[in-house]
Amino acid sequence: MTGEIETLADLSKHYKDSVPADLREAKSFEWYLEEVYAHPKIARNAHQRVADMFDFYGTRYDEDAGVVEYLMASEDPLHDGENVFYGREVHESIHEFVNKVKSGARGLGPEKRIKLLLGPVGSGKSHFDWISRRYFEDYTMSDEGRMYTFRWTNLGDVIRDQDPSDDVVQSPMNQDPLVLLPQEQRDVVIKQLNENLDAPYTIRNDQALDPASEFYMDRLLAHYDDDLEEVVANHIEVIRLVASENKRQCIETFEPKDKKNQDETELTGDVNYSKLAVYGESDPRAFDYAGAFCNANRGIFSGEELLKLQREFLYDFLHASQEQTIKPKNNPRIDIDQVIVGRTNMPEYREKKGDEKMEAFNDRTKRIDFPYVLEYEQEAEIYRKMLRNADVPDIHVEPHTLEMSGLFGVLTRIVEPDSDTISLVQKAKAYNGELDDGDDVDVRKLREEGEKKADIAEGMDGVSARFIGDEIAEAIMDATHRGRGYLSPLSSFTHLEENLENHGSIPEENLERYHRYLEMVREEYKERAIEDVRHALAYDIDEIRRQGEKYMDHVMAYIDDATVEDELTGRDQEPDEKFLRAVEEKLNIPEDRKDDFRQEVSNWVSRRAREGTSFNPQDNDRLRRALERKLWEDKKHNINFSALVSANELDDDERNAWIDALVDQGYSRDGAREVLEFAGAEVAKTELEG
């Protein structure tokens, strides 16, 4: 047994420590006024609070991409990394979303717009919306994110027709206690708050009391001869307000129902029929503030598949977003304060975008594209996260398996390049950051070209990570049933190929192209497998280091127009141009580009020396690859290639040594045997025929 067992007392203490100390305390309005003077951010509006929430959990600036990464998405500290988001495109989308919320916090306009997350199925938009709601709940539990509302008390003492069960009534819209002050007096308080506020925005609040609270205020002011102090002293308690989606408090998710049964009261609230007989139809106390917009007040409204709603039903969003009010049927208008987020997929967006009658709605939305990930190694991290979060059987995932699955996904999402000088796979590698300094490829230009050619944006269609993840899971279970202890790229390819036709979200006209892409990925994997086998057959780390040091000695001498000491004779000699070119040609560096490469490597070594880091050719990917390939050329003549293709020599010492070398590269022993059979034959065939 590992660790101590948690007792009920332990669990109870942990829970109590997690709850705000003032969660169940009733405070006076006078206390609240003093508290908000001391801490003005308590009176923030929804956009301001949500904007601060993203910064609260930490940020990291990606200078190369010009994007702020929010740690709640890139590290997920609340859930130990279980919900981490991967990919430049996703973090760009999150960055754009937060920028719009922050603009809304400053009152620049987006506070009056719907933030519409647009993307294909499985692109992460729903998950981002979900995690934002979870973090908002947690943030409002913290001291930095706290907010308060109020409740009316002792109403029956003054209002004679008040139902005894309604003697204590919480603010139906969970409004900030400041709305209890008439606007003129409230503005005086807010001016003082802003003088003490350290924030990029100003506190603003011009909301009217909700109709029920306004009714109570009018009746009580009449009773106390307009003495506001008496009203709040005798009938107002200030209480802590914590967001909770389960309680439908400051967070609400709204899902479209059957088109024929859509009712605006789901959004704006309806008559409370149990109170109708008590108060009468026109009395605001008989209204039930249970609409989605009511529940989301002070927080986040999340509309799932928003554009599947009927056009008429969407009109309610016009006032909610632009005017920040709702108008329930046969009731006064109600002010609202919330970040309205909608999500939609591509077909619904295209349909509504082409509808002229939707012009007003479209004008009140701020679209944030959520494309698929376009870097295949980041895509592989999504699958790795899936496996990490699941109860995976005891199975070994072989090298390249997840990366090649990710490469297939990316190929289906990116636009084929116009230029004949770069292939689709090379474009995917460029997006993945696999560009050598000598490569004549402009990634920014490739991205611009892709955006122009795409229907909406690059990465907005193709195969989803969800589909590929499902096939990886199927391949794992199939391997388990067959008694195979490993998952290889070859088995993943088989499952992807067999199930493309069976996936409902893949258009039939794309199938032939996707099968062609799968063949491209097979070829790419074959090249990588061949490299791994060559590495296993000829790799010698000491020789790599020695050759690397020799190469750098001769490069430095070449650049400085100096001589180098001969290893055998000790005499000074000119730089060995033949040796230098033998290394460089392994990277296909032409004669007229050799000086650029040598200067690049020299600069790299000098930079590391200034940082106090010693030279190691393993740390420079291009130099390492060149040296490994030269080492292969030097040693291949001593390799018994017939053993690679001879089934009779399967268990001999030589083959076992190769398997051991592949295991050192991350393969399982069975996976090493598979890759030897798959790529070893290709290596042997090439060398024996050569």
Automatic annotation (TrEMBL):
Q: What Pfam family is a match for this entry?
A: PrkA
Q: What is its EC number?
A: 2.7.11.1
Give the UniProt keywords, A-Z: Kinase, Serine/threonine-protein kinase, Transferase
User: Per the record's keyword annotation, is Kinase included, yes or no?
Assistant: yes
Top-level division of the source organism's lineage: Archaea
The broad enzyme category this protein falls into is transferase
GO function terms (MF aspect): protein serine/threonine kinase activity
Q: Which residues form the PrkA AAA domain?
A: 27-421
The protein in question is named Serine/threonine protein kinase
Q: What gene does this protein come from?
A: prkA2
